[in-house]
Amino acid sequence: MLTLPWRLSSGRLRARLAATVILVAAVALTIPALWFVYGERVGLGIFASTITLTVPLLWASLGEAVSQKAGVLNIGVEGVILFGAFAAALGSHLTGSLVIGLGAAIVAGLLCALVLGFLYLVRDVDQVVGGIQFGLLALGLTTVLDTPFLTGSAGGSEILNRVPLPLLSSIPVLGPTVFSQTVLAYLAFLMAPVTFYILRHSWFGLCVRAVGERPGAADAAGVDVLRVRWIAVGFECVMVAVGGAALVLAVTGDFTPGMSGGRGFIAIAVVMLASWNPIVVIGCAAMFGLATALEFQLQVLPVVQDVPKEIWLSLPYLVTLVVIALVRGADFPNALGIPFERLGRRL
Amino acid sequence: MQVHSGPTTRAVSCLTVAALIITACTAGTASPAGGTPGATGGTPAATAGTGDFKVALIVSDKCDDHSWGQAHCSGAQTGAANTGANLVIAEEVVTPQDVTQQGTAFANQGFNLIVVANGGVPQAVHQLALDFPNVMFCQHGSPMTGNVVDYPPNLCTYLVQFQDGSFVAGALAGYLTETGKVATIGGFDFSVINLQMEAFRLGARYVNPSVQSNTLVINDLYDVSKGYAAATAQYAAGADFIFSGTDQATVGFMKAAEEAGPGQYVVATMWDSNFLSPTTVITSATFNLDGATQRIIEMAARGDLENRHYPFGPEYGSLEITPYYGLASVVPDDVDRKVKEISAAIATGKLVVPIMTTANDSEDFDISTLPPPPQ
Q: What is the pLDDT of residues A238-270, one digit of tens each?
């Protein structure tokens, strides 16, 4: 990937962040606006759908943020989501245990990390090409394996129960909806500040940022660049695979070929829009989740339902276009997508 | 973008080849009837009969999807078992290119009949029939057409009259709705899906002229999370009955109905789905879809299959809706009686359900042209 020949000025960076915040806020205000116009039930329905649609994307985005900060652009996120979802479905289908399903997804994530790490960090495969090929491989392999291993599971598997949080779920109106989610949903929102802390306030996070910006300088300072990137890719793939597991264990109860539905690519856009800030990732991921929820809600509400449905069905993609336009000025990690070579000798 | 040569090129090439092979292999997963997997174009193992008559089913969905795919697979297996035919099923063959590839592979292996359960590929099936004049092709799911002048002699089509059972299910919903609002959710804005949904909406309005209804499209037949989000939107908008014009995504409707609480129901289609959610699936309009495919295979085995279109109407079970099972207490006896009377009226031809293949057609239909509903 080409390194940008210039860095954003602090003023331009602030302007881009401000535009991001304004965009997210404007979309977020849609919920109270629709609530006011169409009533509580509609507002709560959009809220509930948004959270459900956001959780898998949030897991994937947080993982991708860490790997990109370390300088690894994993385009194969879509494939890792598929492998994670398939493993979760297989594990829960074979054993009847959702926990084992989640464990299987984590193992699948680690295996994906081995493959992708080998491609990106050992063989120095172009990260865009390699990621796309990995995604194709994942789509094909999970589709082929679906019939022999998951036949008979369609629609009939259990999903995670919703766990109401004490006190918080008793809050009038919003409490039962917002604070009665699955464990994977709570963990996703918890992982955002955890990831933020790791990146900003831990030694490992410092190393991640260093190898993503100036790997040569980090190497000269004694940081093992490849080891840090390996760990970052491992962390990322596990997070993304758990996102895939969330699709199965928290929503569908079953694996469907191609069920990632482009969430991997959206996660990449989310990360860039959020300027690799895990806290801002929450808002950006929720924005896409809301756009998808509105895609359906707006088709059935009075007045707006008269708008051709194709307009509403394209809403998530319109949001993506706006995001791409904003990201045009993003301050990418300097070494993003560039294999590390130490002093002319490839490691 | 930096390009690296040497080992990198080899690694990328290997991965590319592997990806292409795997992806190509997913152009339908062919298996002998009975579930044993086999590679596309491979020699099928003998299972459902080892007779000389070889039948292939190319279906767009999975055989365990509790919907379109399962109905066709089940019907094909029954038909093959009854006739001793050798059956192979290729699942999840969706695109015209995949149908062409899979159909060509079967035709080259000497199959006598190839049934294509996919309404979106009429041109591909037509071309296959032209390319393999010694193989009989029969497609289910294309828009109805009685004009077979341009069809090759080895091509037939068949279509279940989905509008009949959908209308009956709509009447049930129209009688039972407490919010005065029913809804439909479709996978795509496609004629065969629209005729089901519009018939449901018309059936509801036929018995309850004040009922409101709408249609929502999710652009996916299988995505359960989209189905969940769409159904959540419909229930939030006031609907208490949702008719499914999707396949596996229906499971999302059930989950949304369960979360919405008692009084929210789902009308599934193609396959009896009550067991998936006994508290929300009030009935399933199954249309005897499996019976239609079974009949096509049996006719072919007898040598009776002709170059024509076969409509499967009430006499073949297009009115079929499943019992209410654990939700029988929700359906008063007089409602059940009236629904049965409507069904009988359709069966005898006293009531003819119109074919509406465009979204929202039912809104403009004048219900006074239909016989008065049962009192």
A: 999 999 999 888 877 778 888 888 899 999 989
Amino acid at A325: A
- Whether residue A89 has pLDDT greater than 60: yes
| Joined tokens for residue B88 | 């192979």
Is the CB of residue B213 less than 8 Å away from at least one CB of chain A? no
Amino acid at B257: A
Q: How far apart are CA B49 and CA B52, in angstroms?
A: 9
User: What are the chain A neighbours of B183 within 8 Å (beta carbons)?
Assistant: 300
B15, B16, B88, B218: best to mutate for the A interface, most A CBs within 10 A = B15
B151-162: buried (b, 16+ CB within 10 Å) or exposed (e) per residue? bbebbbbbbbbb
Show residues of chain A in contact with B235, CB under 8 Å: 45
Residues in A closer than 8 angstroms to B31, CB to CB, are 147
Q: Three-state DSSP class for A180?
A: strand
Q: Please state, as a whole number, how many other Cβ atoms lie within 10 Å of the Cβ of residue B71.
A: 28
Neighbours of B298 (CB within 10 A): 18
B29 and A45: CB-CB below 8 Å?
no
CB B187 within 8 A of CB B220: yes
Tell me the longest C-alpha to C-alpha distance in chain A. 65
Q: Contact B26/A313, CB-based, under 8 Å?
A: no
Q: Could you tell me the end-to-end alpha-carbon distance of chain A, in angstroms, rounded to an integer?
A: 19
CA B122 to CA B228: how far, in whole Å? 31
Which residue from A minimizes the CA distance to B223? A259
CA angle A225–A227–A229, rounded 5-degree value: 70
Distance between start and end Cα atoms, chain B? 74
Residues 6+ apart with CB under 8 A from B127: B100
pTM here is 0.79
pLDDT in tens, B4-40: 445 555 555 556 556 555 555 444 455 555 433 233 3
- A306 vs B contacts (CB less than 8 Å): none
Q: What is the pLDDT of residues A273-316, one digit of tens each?
A: 888 999 989 988 998 888 888 888 888 777 777 788 788 878 87
Quote the radius of gyration of chain A (alpha carbons, Å): 20
**What DSSP string describes B271-287?**
S--GGG-TTTEEEEE-T
Is the ipTM above a cut-off of 0.90?
no
In this structure, the number of other CB atoms found within 10 A of the CB of residue A121 comes to: 21
Mean pLDDT of A8-20: 66
State the Cα–Cα distance between residues B325 and B341, nearest whole angstrom. Answer: 20
Span A146-163, pLDDT tens digits: 877 876 555 555 678 788
CA angle centred on B53, ends B50 and B54, rounded to 5°: 80
Tell me A284's DSSP state. Answer: H
B283 vs B286: CA distance, rounded Å:
9
Nearest CA to CA, how far is A68 from chain B (Å)?
Answer: 16
Q: Do A147 and B229 touch (CB under 8 A)?
A: no
The DSSP call for residue B329 is: G
Contact between B208 and B176 (Cβ < 8 Å): no
Window A:27-66, CB contacts with B under 8 Å: 38, 41-42, 44-46, 48-49, 52-53
Q: Are A28 and A283 in contact (CB under 8 A)?
A: yes
Residue B123 near chain A (CB below 8 Å): no
Query: Is residue B49 classed as helix, strand or coil in its secondary structure?
Result: strand
Q: Would an 8 Å CB–CB cutoff place A346 in contact with chain B?
A: no
CB–CB contact A153 B1 (8 Å):
no
User: Does an H or E element contain A321, and which?
Assistant: helix A315-327
